[in-house]
Amino acid sequence: MINGRTRLHVVANGTMTGQRYIDEVLLPHVRLFRGAVGDKFVFMDDNATCHRTLSVQDCLDSEGIQRLVWPARSPDLNPIENVWDALGRQVAGRNYPPTNKNTLIRALTEEWDKLPQQLLDNVGQSMVRRVGCCITLHGGHIPY
């Protein structure tokens, strides 16, 4: 988001299902963030199959969370890909690259905290220019 970020939330074990997405992402993180931002909040996910279940849509509707509607596989409309690319380059460029899941999670978390806020601001501003609203980006089950 513009002028800030949450800590990185890594969901690393098992397959992400619609119910896990509700329980581990939407309710504990997105719902609270929406409450803090207010009525102009628009949520953007990455169109993964688990994000498109009826139970997920019911949850979003019941929480008053508006989802940005956009076509699947539209990288030009999914600016989170720019953030993931920058994060991936930072992790790959470490002196001691991750060798297992635990070191990968640690590296992602450390590098997330080091990403320049200006990068996140630029991504957020690009969406404001394109869709004219305040949004929170989410992809890969890691909201920010």
UniProtKB/TrEMBL annotation:
InterPro entries: RNaseH_sf (IPR036397), Tc1-like_DDE_dom (IPR038717). Pfam families: DDE_3. GO terms for molecular function: nucleic acid binding. It comes from the Eukaryota. Residues 33-97 form the Tc1-like transposase DDE domain. Transmembrane segments: none annotated. Coiled coil: none annotated. This is Tc1-like transposase DDE domain-containing protein. It comes from Trichonephila clavipes (Golden silk orbweaver).
